[in-house]
Design brief:
Pfam family, one: KH_1
Radius of gyration: 32 Å
CATH superfamily of the largest domain: GHMP Kinase, N-terminal domain
Organism: Blautia obeum
Structural class: alpha+beta
Domain S1 motif: 623-691
Shape: elongated
Protein name: Polyribonucleotide nucleotidyltransferase
Enzyme class: transferase
Largest sheet: 8 strands, antiparallel
Strand order of the largest sheet: 8-7-9-10-21-20-18-19
């Protein structure tokens, strides 16, 4: 039965159509927010997937170019693989949804959000996030929802709920918050050094709006929701746990995991697993879930050690950061390099500088962001965790980590006018044991400074973890979590920023939300740790950006010309500008406003190109002196090219201070001569003189 529901959300109407389309999905919601339209569906397989020990959830955000009246670019005129923005949006939808499914559910679940129409006033991410929650809630798929998501901007000190695309361009904050009925379950933010107190206020502004949306969803579910289906639980039998404890007592498991060396700990667990496999060799049912049982045993042991005994696996105090080290200039010939090490997490970042023409072009649904001059890429090879597998290019995790570091650093980068370069940083993970994304922020900051990029302030990142007990007050927040504490804990709360404020947040959790007390403590802890990393490690390694770019980096000079002269500099079909490039070996970029960037590695060539462009773009006046080349000789005089494609004529009477019969008696083709402008002749051509050039010129 088709039903439609509406509510006012941030000054616009949100409408949800149920039962109108996609009726064969387990759940479907056709979302309308203003003129933005998104179809959200939720489907689940009939049976659990065999042989897996995880919940197989897939979230897709599909951008259709017809939604903004475009035909896809390239030769293949249809949508291809997901854009980086689509992948990041899928991750933001996934993170609050995943913890609300049963932990022992093994049926495949796919959430698809298809963007069909985009209203610039209504961001399609919002109806997609809400649509996934609604479609899953009304379906028969087991799900402990609803959850709701709101975005917050900050313009001139005022919070803006669900800002439009135009408002996002002006905002000092791009915050996305997802909530359940009582708690915050996901935070994602990029910010221009927003103070911690302001960030907390913004988070709970969004949380309040989310409660209104949840009440709206509850009404839809009450009228349209299906009964949740039963499923075969994949929980580990309790009797298996008891049998394991008799063979491996709790104190032995504690000793196995209580080490600061990741490889030693993994070897200890391998030995324990092998003993248990021998012990249960005759019980195929137990062997099938033994890996999960050992994982759960480790998890219970680590959580008990931390929560009750305040002991961390590597022996650190609750607020203690692992040993830190920082270096710059470790890779020769690249434009900038730095390595940051935190315990067994090690990142090396290389910086590359290039002309602005090398900026990344973006073909997507956002009409404002069509190019990107700063690109951060993050790589996570298998050797960094002691594993072996072929490299198949970056996955969603790598893309997400790269985007997080990029978002953290964008607020401190110089403008294109101050520093006319495209900038790429690549973070290579040499070793991983927790929070490599935040280490890549630290390494990238130092690499940029080493490359001579005049960033306004250094940025550092750190992550906090969480272990919770039976009640909201029974918890402990951990500063600088390592891999084991991330795997077995309840939260990975990443915060990056400068001394003065936050530039990025990403929060992942595995439980049904965080209280305000936990959120505030995590933000306070990350600030303390960030200050320490900046002051005691990074700034002692490199205190400020270098005052020059690396000798191997291209040099760029900028000049401004009259926009009316751009056509003269470019020439017919690019003939003039291509001639300048060919003669000087530089690269030239010109904006519509007349800003000319000249890029090269040879200073002489850059100076020549600059001189040529200025010559072409200058209104010629009598008395100006030029250097040129004789390119043509006639009976009545010679033509001198003083800039690519620009010629003037020297009459035979103006060549020498004494009478000559033939031009060839004084000049030959290719001669370099100085000439002075005499104005224009009767035919409108530039008229030059050689004999009237002052001796001192």
């Amino acid at each position: 039965m088709y039903k439609s529901y509406s509510m006012e959300l941030a000054g616009r109407t949100l409408t949800v159509d149920i039962g109108r389309v996609a009726k064969q999905a387990n759940g479907a919601a056709l979302m309308h927010y203003g003129d933005t339209t998104v179809l959200s569906t939720a489907t689940a397989s009939k049976e659990p997937r065999e042989g897996i020990d995880f919940f197989p959830l897939s979230v897709e955000y599909e951008e259709k170019m017809y939604a903004v009246g475009k035909i896809p670019g390239g030769f293949n005129k249809r949508e291809g693989k997901a854009s980086e923005h689509a992948i990041l949006t899928s991750r933001v939808i996934d993170r609050p949804m995943r913890p609300l499914f049963p932990k022992d559910y093994r049926n495949d679940v796919t959430l698809v959000n298809m963007v069909m129409s985009v209203d610039p006033e209504c961001n399609p991410e919002i109806p997609a996030m809400l649509g996934s929650s609604i479609a899953t809630c009304i379906s028969d798929i087991p799900f402990d929802g609803p959850c709701a998501t709101t975005q917050v901007g900050l313009i001139d000190g005022e919070f803006v709920i669900n800002p439009s695309l135009a408002q996002k361009e002006l905002s000092d904050l791009q915050l996305t918050v997802a909530s359940t009925r009582e708690k915050v379950i996901m935070i994602e933010a990029g910010a221009n050094e927003v103070p911690e107190d302001t960030m907390i206020e913004a988070i709970y502004k969004a949380h309040d709006v989310n409660q209104e949306i949840i009440r709206f969803i509850d009404k839809i579910v009450a009228e349209c929701g299906k009964e949740k289906h039963l499923y075969a639980s994949c929980a580990v039998p309790e009797e298996l746990f008891e049998a394991i404890k008799k063979i491996v007592p709790p104190e032995e498991m504690e000793e196995a995991v209580f080490t600061d060396d990741k490889q030693t700990r993994e070897e200890n667990i391998r030995e324990i697993t092998a003993r248990l496999q021998d012990a249960f060799a005759d019980n195929e049912e137990w062997l099938a879930v033994l890996g999960e049982a050992v994982y759960q045993y480790q998890k219970k042991t680590v959580r008990k050690m931390i929560l009750k005994d305040h002991k961390r696996p590597d022996g650190r105090q609750i607020t203690q950061i692992r040993p830190l080290a920082a270096e710059v200039d470790i890779i020769p010939r690249v434009h900038g390099s730095a390595m940051f090490t935190r315990g067994q997490t090690q990142i090396c970042t290389m910086t590359t500088l290039a002309p602005l023409s090398e900026a990344q072009r973006i073909d997507g649904l956002d009409e404002f962001e069509t190019s990107k001059r700063y690109m951060h890429h993050y790589n996570f090879p298998s050797y960094s965790v002691g594993e072996t597998k072929p490299s198949r290019g970056p996955g969603r995790r790598e893309i997400g980590h790269g985007a997080l570091a990029e978002r953290a650093l964008v607020p401190v980068l110089p403008s294109a006018e101050e520093f006319p370069y495209a900038i790429r940083t690549v973070s290579e993970t040499f070793e991983s044991n927790g929070s490599t994304s935040q280490a890549s922020i630290c390494a990238s900051t130092m690499s940029l400074m080493a490359a001579g990029v005049p960033i306004r302030k250094p940025v550092a990142g750190i992550s906090c973890g969480l272990v919770t007990g039976a009640t909201d007050d029974d918890y402990i927040v951990l500063t600088d979590i390592q891999g084991l504490e991330d795997f077995f804990g309840d939260m990975d709360f990443k915060v990056a920023g400068t001394h003065d404020g936050i530039t990025a947040i990403q929060m992942d959790i595995k439980i049904h939300g965080l209280t305000r007390q936990i959120v505030e403590e995590a933000i306070r802890r990350t600030k303390e740790a960030r200050e320490y990393i900046l002051t005691e490690v990074m700034e002692k390694c490199i205190a400020a950006p270098r005052d020059h770019v690396n000798k191997y980096a291209p040099k760029i000079v900028q000049i401004q010309i009259d926009p009316q002269k751009i056509g003269d500099v470019v020439g017919q079909r690019g003939k003039t500008i291509n001639a300048i490039i060919e003669r000087t070996g530089v690269q030239i970029d010109i904006t519509d406003e007349g800003a000319v960037s000249i890029c090269g590695v040879d200073q002489h060539g850059m100076d020549e190109a600059k001189k040529m462009i200025k010559t072409i773009a200058t209104d010629f006046e009598a008395g100006q002196i030029f250097e040129g080349t004789v390119v043509s000789i006639k009976e009545f005089g010679a033509f001198v090219e003083f800039a690519p494609g620009k010629e003037g004529m020297v009459h035979i009477s103006k060549i020498s201070d004494h009478r000559i019969n033939r031009v060839e008696d004084v000049l030959t083709l290719g001669d370099k001569v100085k000439v002075i402008c005499m104005g224009k002749d009767k035919m409108g051509r530039m008229s030059f003189s050689i004999k009237d050039v002052p001796e001192e010129a």
